Structures are given as structure tokens and as C-alpha cells.
Amino acid sequence: MINYTIMQKIIDEIKKTSGDMARRGWAESNGGNISLRLNSENYACFDGLQTKSDWIKLPVAIPEIAGERFLVTGTGRFLRNIEVFPEKNIGVIEIDRKGEAWQLLWGYEPTGAPTSELPAHLLSHVSIKKKSDNQSFAFIHTHPNSVIALTYAVANLDTKSLSKILWQSHAECVVVFPQGIEFLSWKMAGSMDLGRATAEAMLRRNLAVWQFHGICGCGRNLDEAFGRIDVAEKAAEICLRVMAAGGAKQTLTDTQLRAIAANFNCPIDESLFE
Ligand code: 2HA
Ligand code: ZN
């Protein structure tokens, strides 16, 4: 039987995240998408529903998430509309027993399908489920202005230089993302290539920037995933302002960055200093 109290709680969480993303200007038109793997309590809440679609084949089998259920924003839907019409703009899908197909349990009224970035979401859920020992449930992709602008403004960006620039631009960064941010050079939106590269990045880090496009973040819950992206975006904005003001005249040193990480017991990725 459907448990409306629990269901309302999940919907409220996604409303808050999507509303915050839209109001920050990270989700123009149908830009950006959110997925939440359902934990056991949330999972059971969708038991016994009459299914709303046939099984629809995934582009690749993902047996690691066989049987899982996900709340996912809909393709072509606007995140800013989730607060008003959640049942039209989000859906709950179930993956089959072999991890080869999905079917709709709830949502996308009157008809619809999950985000075009489903490969990145589902493959990244495999990575974050594994690396967190099944404690991470949330994945967000979004289009924040300053992170995107940075991928145009700085020459020869890679994971090391991007992580270092952002760590230096805001003293909180090394605490929020001590493993740095993966930089992924441009790949076609919605492609398996982009999905695979993002999922691979999520094994090592909690954030990945898509050149000329946006950012992805994961977390135990939507607040944690959102917060990581929010801090990265703030650092990118500071960095751009500093560049516009004529460039940094001083910055956080490697010693200071390491000291901040040590002070907050954060496992900094030392290889990013090499
Ligand atoms: O959902 O953000 O990357 C629209 C997008 C594609
Ligand atoms: Zn996008």
C-alpha cells in the first residue's frame, strides 16, 4: 500500500532542491536533472502500485542496480515546475531483475520518461552506491553560470588545475571537496560516453565538471549533493570576480590548504598538488 506520509516527504525534499536550483539560475528551461535512489523505507512506499509503462530497455545493462527504484526528474520537464506539479515533472522508475530495463511506477503525468541524462545518473549511482557502502542516494546535474564560465575562461583546464583554482578561491572548498573536482572535456549531452566518464569520476570524487555544459554532484542525500555544487559554484564566481578585478595578487598557499584539510580531518587528494 502506498504510504502518503513518506511519499510526501520525498516529494517535499525534491521540491526544495529543484526550487533552490531554479531560483539560483542553475536550471533554465529544461536544464538540469535530479535522481534519488530510494532507500528501503522509501522503496516500500511504492509497493503494490499498478505499473504505468511496459519495460523499456536501458542502453546498457546495469546489473549493479537491478531491482532498485529511483525518483527521477522527467525529460523535457522544467525543474522550476516541480514545486507546482510534482506528479507531472518527476517519476518513480523501477529497474528490472537483470538491470536491463526500467518501468514507470508513478509520475510523468500524463506520459513521459526520465531525463535524457539517465545514463550519467544510473551509472553514477552504481559508483556512489559502491564507494559509500550503500550510504549515498542522491545525484544532481545542473548548469550553474560561474562553473560553466570558468571552463571557457581558463586555458588548459584539467582536474588538477580546476581543483586547485577552486580550492584557492574559497577557504571552505578543501573541506567540502577534499578529493577535488573531476574535469571532463566536452562530450555530447545525454551520451553513454559522458555517462561512463561521469560514473568513473564519481568513484574518486563527489563532483565532476562537464566542460562548456555544467556540473554533477553526489551525496548521501539531496542536501549534501546540492551543498557541494553550491560551494563549487560560489568558488567559481569568486574566481571569475578576481580575474575580472585584474587577477589574484595573493592566494591560499599549499601549506594553508593542507592545514585547513587537516584541521577538519578531511582526506585531501595529495596527487592534486603534484
Ligand atoms: O535535461 O541538462 O544535459 C537537460 C540537460 C541535459
Ligand atoms: Zn545539462
CATH topology of the largest domain: L-fuculose-1-phosphate Aldolase
- Outline the biggest β-sheet: 9 strands, mixed
The beta-strand count equals: 9
Shape: elongated
What order do the strands of the largest sheet run in, or round the barrel if closed? 2-5-4-3-1-6-9-8-7
Can you list the ligands bound to this structure?
Answer: Dihydroxyacetone, zinc ion
Q: Radius of gyration from the CA trace? A: 19 Å
CATH architecture of the largest domain, by name, is: 3-Layer(aba) Sandwich
State the order of secondary-structure elements, H for helix, E for strand: HEHEEHEEHEHHHEHEEHH
Name the helicity range.
Answer: 40-55%
What integer is the average pLDDT? 97
The named CATH superfamily of the largest domain? Class II aldolase/adducin N-terminal domain
Unreliable spans: none
Share of β-strand residues: 15-25%
Distance between the termini: 55 Å
Highest-level CATH class of the largest domain: Alpha Beta
Structural class: alpha+beta
Tally of separate domains: 2
The count of helical stretches stands at 10
